[in-house]
Design brief:
By secondary structure, the protein is mostly helical. Helix content is about 45%, strand content about 5%. The longest helix has about 35 residues, at about 1-35.
Length: about 350
């Protein structure tokens, strides 16, 4: 009987210990759920940026979140990442934490890589000055962009005559880099994209008797003369045919570029502007201009490499975005008169002053 009486207090102690352990486990479980499943931000809190550097560990990210007041201890985040099997799956980038998100949702966000997109799009046919303004609208200092774009070093190996990167900043959509000098990083990325696009075709240039600089310069003229993809090879053929015959290119975009460089461009081009004293003025200077006047897209680059097999020497706008092409000056003059008459709404009394130009 004495042994039985002594066993009862021992059983009660064990029961109390089991209950204590269960309560502790329950408390830890509730604390874990509270830490990881409950919102760590109030509903009305403003968005919080979270920048995860490349190669950041779960422990390092946990310290970031701890510093932002989103987790009590970095270890909690690290354990949560292990529990969810997300080790090595957290993606670098810039995130925006919005609304009442939980720590679990933050882990899922980083695992999916739902980074903030800070894109800037550069359309075809833009000069470096135009691009600087587009970048400025996305927070890139235009002066820093122009400084980087005026350094020809990145393309010196393929264009020893380059004085800047005009024509070599490939038009595309770019995710703005987070860097100490984002302008320089963006320009480097654009040059890299140009090299990527043109690299497969570089071996074909010698057979076309073109240097990289001549290719990009011609392509920039094609880009500025038409927005119609189907016309680009024919526009390129006109320029190449005129060069072969020693005829001046006489293309208005080069005059506009010269006027912009001289600070004289106001959106209109007049007959007297065709006399501007500039090496870029293809009405006064034979051959190609000194360099590209804008950044061409791949379509214009390929048009120069693979021009249309035609003998055209002239083209004129049809006033609808397309062009009429001609092999002879007589044909061209008649086309000019016809489309000028349409534009003016009546008969023209004289031939176009620029009837002999390419466009």
């Amino acid at each position: 009987m004495a042994r039985a009486a002594g066993a009862r207090p021992e059983a009660r102690r064990r029961l109390r210990l089991v209950l204590l352990v269960l309560l502790l486990v329950l408390a830890l479980r509730l604390a874990w759920v509270h830490e990881t499943r409950y919102p760590v931000r109030s509903p009305g809190a403003p968005p919080q940026p979270l920048v995860v550097p490349p190669g950041a560990s779960a422990d390092a990210i946990g310290r970031q979140l701890h510093g932002m007041g989103l987790v009590r201890h970095p270890l909690v985040f690290r354990v949560l990442v292990l529990v969810r099997g997300a080790g090595g799956e957290l993606k670098a980038g810039e995130y925006s934490l919005e609304g009442p998100v939980s720590l679990t949702q933050i882990v899922d966000l980083l695992t999916r890589g739902e980074v903030v997109r800070r894109d800037v799009t550069f359309p075809e046919g833009r000069s470096i000055e135009d691009m600087a303004q587009l970048a400025a609208a996305r927070g890139i200092a235009p002066g820093e962009f122009l400084e980087a774009a005026r350094d020809p070093g990145p393309i010196r190996d393929i264009d020893p005559l380059a004085v800047d990167l005009e024509g070599y900043l490939f038009p595309d959509t770019y995710d703005l880099p987070r860097a100490e000098n984002p302008a320089a990083a963006l320009v480097a990325r654009m040059v890299g994209r140009f090299r990527e696009v043109i690299s497969p075709d570089l071996a074909r240039l010698p057979s076309r008797e073109l240097t990289v600089r001549q290719l990009v310069t011609l392509a920039s003229l094609v880009e500025m003369e038409t927005a119609r993809p189907e016309e680009r090879p024919r526009i390129a053929a006109v320029f190449l045919n005129r060069l072969q015959k020693g005829m001046p290119l006489q293309t208005d975009p080069t005059v506009i570029f010269a006027m912009r460089k001289a600070g004289r461009w106001n959106g209109n081009i007049r007959k007297k502007d065709l006399e501007i004293d500039s090496p870029y003025n293809t009405y006064r200077v034979a051959g190609l201009p000194p360099g590209p006047i804008a950044s061409p897209g791949r379509g214009s680059l390929l048009a120069v490499i693979e021009p249309a097999p035609v003998r055209d020497l002239y083209f004129v706008s049809r006033n609808d975005g397309t062009h009429e092409f001609s092999e002879t000056l007589g044909q061209h003059n008649r086309a000019v008169e016809r489309y000028q008459r349409q534009r003016r709404g009546g008969p023209s009394s004289a031939a176009d002053p620029g009837a002999s130009k390419a466009s």
